[in-house]
Amino acid sequence: MQVKTHELRGRGRSEIAVDHDVTDATSVFVPHLTPSPENVIGDWVFRCPAIVVGNGKIAKAFVVDVDDLAAAKHPTWLDYDHPNRRVTLAAGAYRHEGHVFFVRDPKPFDADVSSRLHEITSTRAEDIASPFGLASRFVWERWGHARFASTKAPFIATHMDRIAKWAFASGWSDSVWQRVDERRAAPVFIVDVGRHSSVPVEQRTWREPRAIWNQAWFSTQRCANGLLRYARQIGSADLDARARQMTEIALSAPRTDGLFPAVLRATHDGWGWTNSDRRPASASEHACHLVDAAFTCRMLLEWHALTGDERARAYVDAFAARLVTLQRPSGAFPGWIEPNGRVPEDLAEGPESAVSIALLLELGMHEPAERGLAFLEGVTRDARWEDFETYFSCARWGTPGERIARNGVYKQNTLSIAWCAEAFMLAGRMDLARRCIDELSLYQAVWDPPFLPAPSFGGFGVMNADAEWNDARQSLFAPLYLELGRRLGDSQLTERGLAALRASFHMLYCPENAELARAYESRFPFFGPESWGFMMENQGHDVSQPIGTFTIFTWGNGSALAAAATVRDRFPELA
User: For 219, what's the count of Cα atoms within 13 Å in the CB-facing half-sphere?
Assistant: First the structure.
């Protein structure tokens, strides 16, 4: 391995361009997309400021020096022009545009510029196989490990207690805990400051209609499993009972030939079932989103292992029996299935299949799982990490299946990478699991930028077309990293997993997170002890306002609690 350093020095707006010699690159990574020459990769998304290229003969990574970023008194940006094989590092202004692009700005500034761009080149077999690992290992060895070793672990036990009290025994609990009937109850999908206890009851507002979700993001069953683990760890009969009431939600979803809906929504005269609105126009609200159902069944299978509840296993078995009939000739599983059996064209085949494949592996259904794994090999080779969030959430642009020509990559999402890593791991395909986790690691923050109100180190971003730091998905990723660290004997992955777990609590409003608490209270002066445990899903999503207004229990504080309880059970030597 060779390291060459390019230095950017000057005063005011400055830039350097480096042309690489990796022709016909088959592996490319950029932290953010720049589809036009006016776009840049702003330091707002420099979680891990690396650009990677490889062609099966040579691997190369370009990494901005993180120490220089931390010391800079000016904005910094990167750009990658793939057709011309040109990497640009610049000190210069940029502005954000839309959701979320960054555009270079000619506005002058007066400051000394000193920044380094490290060019790492390798022909080692492991780096040729996974050029992304060349960059991820370099940044962790150079900055991540030292920061991890020197950072005090947060008060996770205290945080878990605060979350449980906020959700179930505070001024917020009447809004959070929604009772459907005598058997069924669960935390509501979302609450915001309009539900604060200081607001008169008759004036309280809902950010959106009340609902309870069992979806690949907002998984009530995942939180039920974690809450049950936590209840057993602290000996709480109340939390145990709540976990069981949450599970009744999943078990009551009406099945049609094994398929079932994901969302239970409050109506004017009760509650009714529907599906996630994070879907393409080609899919109706009645279409079963297969990844949502498969994820819920994986969580029910875990519930069965925890409790022996045979109803959960029967529910899973019925879904699996239908699932295998839906497998396509390629080995993929479709994205959405309409009640009449029609498969909408959008993402009809994609990495969402990995969740169904993982379920089949856990059930011992190896023949269809192996066909699915063969499909995932192609997805992984092309880094085609396209799922529902990539196109049908808050960044609704781009065309599934088409690369961004100027960058040489697809619009991609981190959930897909993690799902594929886990499927390969469960299949014992550790080479491919390693390749996936290496790329996923390039979305993990290795520093704490000064423009964010909370520590970001260890947290994860969402995609190469959005601006979040410390997104709640890191709580899903933490056990995956720890399990891969264990199986591969890789202490770096273990450190990354623990860093992700700790970052899962960095957005929590509580006195232990003192600096963040002050930022909350600056925006919401009425916050006090009754709100300890309130938590945003991420930071930086809105580049103009880092402090958000809402909490999603199943994609924030509740998922952090579930992850910590799971790690306590599965990795007691680390908890």
Answer: 28
